Every structure is written in structure tokens, then in C-alpha cells.
């Protein structure tokens, strides 16, 4: 299915494929040509809109406007993904530079008074004739006009020029911040292989480390023998997630855990400290130019939350809901450590994961290493594809003809298999899985739109960008329980992108809801991982094929529930930090003091001096002040999950109703309407409160 460039008649540079930036020879020059093609198409569509000399209609006004947005979205999303994942540094460099060009053209469109006036005239005409447009179209126009007003289209020329300048600066600073994090992989040399005691066997093997003997029982905090380790060559660890996570969870050495913790939380420091302060100052000035007290108020006015004051009230409510249970959880953990190793007190942030792991082993008879053999990466991938297919009524067929941007990236066509669907048996989208680390690639876990769908014209395409263990030869790439939950989470985003990607208007396709609803589908899907029958369909021992035993699974779920309240307060801390950095005068901000104050207020663990996590906290770039979204959406996700029959999660008609009422509308309806349509009421805090305090034993 081809895109609509023939309607806009843009210049046509020699590019291999107008849909995929990475297709064909994909160097810096080709990347620039591809982006310019779509920018030219967007400019041509705007010219077409402005050339109308007659009464404004959907066909002569909203259609070309939406086409311009589609082309700008293509340029922005795919160059953004190439910045994150492309194996060639020259392409990543070009994508970073092009982000400013794309951003500048997007800002120019948002400040174009003639376009705004044309859309306003169309809105007036449609409002006068209620039969002239459907509710989704009117909602699209309402949201579009609001975004124009929030961008400053009604300001004087001097103010609009300053807004343009600030927007360019914010784009450049955001990309600089993200690139610094992406490129700064810290290395931790291991002088003595015995520092790696406690780490999983496959981790040791991967790093050329062997066990040689044991020197007596009870010599380390785990209660195991103090094993002796040796390595034929020097060992160096990195801060990439597949190495950082096991160290923080299993390494017996508190010194190694501390070194890894500080290295991970020092990435992109000191460079990003000033970059962040400059970005916050630019956002503050932008908010004030637009008539808002702070960026936090500007960033929430068009969201479900509504204001920074509402956000602060919500976060306080969650803090109160979690505080008592968190105190009990920490008291239990502290008493356990006092009995096992009093010298480890007071517990620090670099000790948290290790001692939580030890506590769960003792209290729940659950060792998270013990389930890793049931979660080799390839089986988890197949299991999630099967689960999502069954749940949402789709099938994932390998797209053998698809061109990908790097070896190891997989592409699948999404085929509709839902009974009664108008597209039954047809391809409704395509997904790409880029799931393992490599040099220069983003170190985070995210879902990214690639091609926005338009009903009858273009199918949606999207990707996962993750950093799970890489299967390699005899190494099956064993995953942690938390890794699998993360994979389910990101796949929830992917399904929202594809199933919601069949709207009339590109601006409403995919994940186009209010920003503080986007984490609902992803967090809802996480809850399915507590169903043993579902998980046993793919959680099989990589050597024996045995499904994960019911008793092991039960202990795993019970153990994972302990610490929820502490984790919730950590999320409140991150959300509060994001709010405060955007709700105070940037010139007066002390990023380190604010960080320490947040940890002191919300965390029971002792702060580790030298923790500068804000320098690598990329959510400050993407979510800006609105990190509260994860907690806010957890409320709705848990309410949604409560509507399912836990005795029949996969084959219940609720799953198809969820697809129809929540995912398929994309951004064509207000999020509150999606909630009411599925629940039959507004969401409440009750499910979150129960989830925080839930005990399984």
C-alpha cells in the first residue's frame, strides 16, 4: 500500500523506499535525502491548504493538514529511531542533526497563523452543521486548535519568533542529552575474579570466569560456601543492562555493587548537568511566554491530569497509600539483614536489590536465579507473540521480505484473526523487534512508532527497542523474571500502536491519546504475567523442556509482591523530581540537593554520595514534568485488569472488548471516554491500594 505523495507532488529525491529510512544504501546522505523528501511533502501539503480560495471543507483543509502531519511524523519518528538504533555512527550523527531541522519545520507549522485560521474557519463551519462531521473528526479539530493556542500562535510576531528560537534550542539540548547517555557506557575493571561471587553461572561463563574450589560453609551473606573464582584473562564489566542488573541483584561483594551503582548513575555526568539546567531554563521561559506559571502547568493543561496542582495532589495521595506498607516492608528487610549480616547496616541504595533478593529467598523460598532457565530469550519472544496473538485476536507472521536496519532485527506482519472483524485474515500492520544490546544503540527499553497508519491508505508499523540478554551459541540468553515483565510491558505499547493505527486521520492513529494515558495498555498487560497457565505455555526449562513448576511459579509471584510499596514510593520520588525540576525557577535549582531531598523523603535506604542519576534520567527529556504518568496509568491499568475473569484470562470475551473499546480507537476519543466505555464508570484508587498492600501468604 503506497503513501499519498502523489497528491502533494513534492520533489522526489532518489530514495530507495519512501516508507523506510533504512531501506537500500543507508548512509548519512541517504538519510538526509529521505528526511527532506518527507519534509518537502509536508510543505507541499501546507501550500495546498493555504491555496484554497473557497469555503473550508474537510477535503480541502483538514485532509492536506493531516497529510502534512503524516509526513512530519514519518520524518521525526524514523529519524528518531535511527538515532537510537542504527549501527553506523554517521547515520546516528545525521539523525541527530536532522532532528533540529524536523523540529523547526514542526514548530513553524504550529505557529502558522494562516493554517490556524483555516482550521478555525473549518471548525466553525462544522460546528454550525452538526451532520457535516463525525465526533472523531470534531475531537481532532478541537485538540488541534488547542495545541495551536498552546504553541503561541496567537502571540505577536516578536513573541512567536522567540518561541521558535526556544523550540530549536530545546530540540538541540534534548538530543544532546540523549546522545550523551546513549554513548556513555561505563566500564568496571575486575581486578579479582572473586568479586564476581554470587553471579549466575552463565554470567561467569560469558566473562571467562570459572569456579575452582570452595573454602568452607557460611562464608558469605547468602549462606553459601565462599567459592573461589579464576579467570584466564582480565574481566571488564559495563553498565549495559544485561550486566548491570545481575551485578546489582546477585553480586555478594558490596564494593562491586557500589562501583556498578555509581558508574550507572554517573553516566553522562558532568556534561549533562549543564545541558539539563539549560533545557529547564528554556522550558521555563517558554511556559512564561505562553502565559503559564511553570512548565509543569503548561505540560499538564491538555492532559487528563489538568494541572501541576492536581499532579501534586495525586502524588501525595499515592504516597499516603503506600507509606504504611512500605515501612513494614523495610522493617522486615532490615530485621533480616541485622540477623544475617549486621555489618551491612545501614542499608544503602546500592545494597537494595541484593538484600531484597536475599530476603525473598529466605522468606518465600524463592531464588530468582532458579527461574531463569525457564526464560531463555527465544522462548520468551515466542511466548509473548503467542500470548498477544491469542489475547488480541491476531497472528504474527515472519515478514521474510522486510528490510531491517541491523542484523538480528526481526520483522513480523500482523494478521487479523478476530472473529467478526471487518479485516479478518488481512494484514493490519507490521512490527520490528530490535531486542539486544550493541555498540551505539540506546540502552533503554521502549516502543517506537515507525509508520503512522491511515484507514484505507497506510498500514501502521512500529518497533520495540530493548536490551535483553543476547542468545549466542551455547548461551541461551536467560532472562530474569523482571525482564519478562518488561517485555510484556513494551509489547502492550506495540499492540496499542498497531491496533489503534487504523483511524481516518493520521493525527489520531496509534498511541495518540493524551500523554498520561499511554502507559495504561502496557501496564495492564504486565498483570497477565501472574497467571500460571499462561506463563507455563512458554516458560519451559531450556535443557529439559519441563514447564515451570506450579509451586515455583507461586513462590515467584508471592516473592515479587514484597517490596511493591517501597517500589511505589520510588516511583513517587522520580515523579516528584520530574515535577519539581519543572515547577521551580531554573536559575535557583540545585539538581543534587533536590535529588538528595527526594531520596531522603521517599526512600528508606541510605543515599549513596555521588549518585547523579538525573544526568542519565532520559524521561526528563521525553516525559518532561509528567513522569507521574506511570503511577497515574497504573491506577487505570489495574482497574482494567480487574474487569477480566482471572479463571479465563485468555479466552474471555473481555479481551476482545478491551481491544475494541480501548486499543482500536487510538486517539479518536478522549481517554476518559475510553475508561468509561470499558469500565462503565470512572477509575478509582481502590485497585491500586489493594495492589500495593496485597499479600499472597
Overview of this structure, please?
- With 697 residues, this protein is an alpha+beta fold.
- The chain folds into two domains: 5-110 and 112-151, Endopeptidase. Chain P, domain 1 (Glutathione S-transferase Yfyf (Class Pi), Chain A, domain 2, Up-down Bundle); 302-583 and 625-697, Neurolysin, domain 3, CATH 1.10.1370.40.
- Helices cover 54% and strands 7% of the residues.
- It has helices at 5-8, 28-50, 58-85, 89-110, 113-128, 135-151, 157-183, 201-206, 241-250, 254-264, 271-289, 295-300, 308-340, 352-364, 368-371, 377-392, 481-499, 520-526, 532-535, 550-561, 564-581, 591-602, 619-622, 629-642, 653-663, 671-679, 686-693, and strands spanning 187-190, 209-214, 227-231, 235-238, 394-398, 410-416, 427-434, 446-451, 461-465.
- The strands form three sheets. It has a five-stranded mixed β-sheet with strand order 5-6-7-9-8.
Amino acid at each position: 500500500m503506497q503513501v499519498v505523495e502523489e497528491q502533494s507532488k513534492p520533489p522526489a529525491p532518489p530514495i530507495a523506499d519512501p516508507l523506510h529510512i533504512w531501506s537500500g544504501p543507508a548512509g548519512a546522505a541517504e538519510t538526509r535525502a529521505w528526511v527532506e523528501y518527507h519534509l518537502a511533502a509536508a510543505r507541499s501539503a501546507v501550500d495546498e491548504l493555504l491555496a484554497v480560495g473557497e469555503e473550508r471543507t474537510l477535503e480541502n483543509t483538514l485532509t492536506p493538514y493531516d497529510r502534512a502531519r503524516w509526513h512530519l511524523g514519518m520524518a521525526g519518528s524514523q529519524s528518531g529511531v535511527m538515532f537510537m538504533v542504527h549501527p553506523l555512527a554517521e547515520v546516528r550523527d545525521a539523525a541527530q542533526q536532522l532532528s533540529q531541522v524536523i523540529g523547526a519545520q514542526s514548530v513553524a507549522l504550529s505557529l502558522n497563523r494562516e493554517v490556524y485560521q483555516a482550521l478555525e474557519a473549518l471548525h466553525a463551519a462544522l460546528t454550525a452543521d452538526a451532520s457535516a462531521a463525525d465526533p472523531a473528526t470534531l475531537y481532532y479539530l478541537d485538540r488541534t486548535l488547542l495545541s495551536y493556542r498552546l504553541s503561541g500562535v496567537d502571540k505577536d510576531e516578536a513573541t512567536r519568533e522567540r518561541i521558535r528560537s526556544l523550540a530549536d534550542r530545546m530540540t538541540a539540548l534534548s538530543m544532546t542529552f540523549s546522545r550523551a547517555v546513549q554513548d556513555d557506557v561505563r566500564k568496571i575493571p575486575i581486578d579479582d575474579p572473586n568479586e564476581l561471587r554470587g553471579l549466575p553461572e552463565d554470567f561467569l561463563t560469558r566473562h571467562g570466569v570459572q569456579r575452582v574450589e570452595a573454602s568452607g560453609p557460611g562464608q558469605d551473606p547468602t549462606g553459601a560456601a565462599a567459592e573461589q573464582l579464576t579467570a584466564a584473562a582480565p574481566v571488564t564489566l559495563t553498565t549495559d543492562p544485561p550486566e548491570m542488573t545481575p551485578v546489582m541483584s546477585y553480586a555478594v561483594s558490596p564494593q562491586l555493587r557500589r562501583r556498578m551503582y555509581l558508574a550507572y548513575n554517573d553516566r553522562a555526568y558532568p556534561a549533562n548537568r549543564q545541558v539539563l539546567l539549560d533545557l529547564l531554563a528554556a522550558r521555563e521561559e517558554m511556559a512564561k511566554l505562553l502565559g503559564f506559571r511553570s512548565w509543569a502547568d503548561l505540560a499538564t493543561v491538555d492532559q487528563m491530569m489538568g494541572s501541576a496542582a492536581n499532579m501534586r495532589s495525586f502524588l501525595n495521595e499515592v504516597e499516603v497509600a503506600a507509606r504504611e506498607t512500605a515501612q513494614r516492608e523495610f522493617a522486615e528487610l532490615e530485621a533480616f539483614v541485622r540477623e544475617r549480616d549486621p555489618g551491612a547496616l545501614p542499608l544503602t541504595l546500592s545494597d537494595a536489590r541484593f538484600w531484597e533478593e536475599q530476603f525473598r529467598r529466605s522468606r518465600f523460598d524463592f531464588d530468582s536465579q532458579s527461574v531463569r532457565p525457564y526464560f531463555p530469550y527465544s522462548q520468551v519472544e515466542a511466548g509473548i507473540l503467542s500470548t498477544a496473538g491469542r489475547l488480541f485476536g491476531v497472528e504474527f507472521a515472519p515478514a521474510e521480505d522486510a528490510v531491517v536496519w541491523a542484523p538480528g532485527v526481526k520483522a513480523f506482519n500482523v494478521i487479523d484473526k478476530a472473529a467478526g472483524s471487518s479485516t479478518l485474515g488481512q494484514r493490519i500492520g507490521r512490527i520490528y523487534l530490535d531486542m539486544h544490546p550493541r555498540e551505539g544503540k540506546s540502552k533503554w527499553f521502549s516502543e517506537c512508532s515507525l509508520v503512522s497508519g491511515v484507514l484505507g491508505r497506510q498500514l501502521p508499523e512500529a518497533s520495540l527497542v530493548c536490551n535483553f540478554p543476547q542468545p549466542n551459541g551455547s548461551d541461551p540468553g536467560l532472562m530474569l523474571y523482571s525482564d519478562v515483565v518488561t517485555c510484556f510491558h513494551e509489547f502492550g505499547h506495540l499492540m496499542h500502536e498497531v491496533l489503534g493505527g487504523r483511524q481516518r486521520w493520521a493525527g489520531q492513529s496509534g498511541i495518540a491519546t493524551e500523554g498520561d494515558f499511554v502507559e495504561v495498555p502496557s501496564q495492564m498487560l504486565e498483570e497477565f504475567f501472574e497467571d500460571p497457565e499462561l506463563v507455563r505455555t512458554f516458560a519451559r526449562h531450556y535443557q529439559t523442556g519441563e514447564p515451570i513448576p506450579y509451586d515455583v511459579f507461586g513462590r515467584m509471584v508471592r516473592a515479587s509482591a514484597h517490596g511493591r510499596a517501597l517500589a511505589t514510593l520510588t516511583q513517587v520520588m522520580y515523579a516528584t523530581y520530574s515535577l519539581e525540576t519543572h515547577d521551580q525557577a531554573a536559575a535557583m535549582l540545585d539538581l543534587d540537593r533536590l535529588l538528595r531531598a527526594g531520596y531522603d523523603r521517599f526512600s528508606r535506604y541510605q543515599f549513596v554520595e555521588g549518585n547523579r542519576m538525573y544526568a542519565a534520567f532520559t524521561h526528563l527529556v521525553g516525559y518532561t514534568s509528567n513522569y507521574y504518568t506511570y503511577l497515574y496509568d497504573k491506577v487505570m491499568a489495574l482497574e482494567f485488569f480487574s474487569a477480566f475473569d482471572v479463571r479465563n484470562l485468555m479466552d474471555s470475551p473481555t479481551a476482545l472488548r478491551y481491544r475494541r473499546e480501548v486499543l482500536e480507537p487510538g486517539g479518536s476519543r478522549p481517554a476518559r471516554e475510553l475508561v468509561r466505555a470499558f469500565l462503565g464508570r470512572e477509575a478509582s484508587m481502590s485497585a491500586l491500594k489493594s495492589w500495593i498492600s496485597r499479600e499472597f501468604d
